[in-house]
Automatic annotation (TrEMBL):
Stated name of the protein: Transcriptional regulator, contains Arc/MetJ-type RHH (Ribbon-helix-helix) DNA-binding domain
PANTHER family assigned to the protein according to its UniProt record, in alphabetical order: BLL4998 PROTEIN
Species of origin: Falsiroseomonas stagni DSM 19981
Pfam name, any one: RHH_8
CDD domains, sorted: RHH_NikR_HicB-like
Amino acid sequence: MVERLEALRPRSVTDSEKITINLGHVDLGHVDLLVRDGFYSNRTDFIRTAIRNQIERHADAARQSVVRRSLDLGLIPAP
């Protein structure tokens, strides 16, 4: 049902959402050094890559959470 609702919802131009984070000067300095040395094209590229890496790192835990949340409790009437 959620898939059908998302299919009906109009897509935005970028299909992404803007967030704000606070980083300390030291962390931001490290990010800027990596960008300056050409490892990433900009700060946003670094942050997106870091988030994707963390999501991939914890993929099993996320999958297990989805399984736990979809567990039906109680009696389900026969069709």
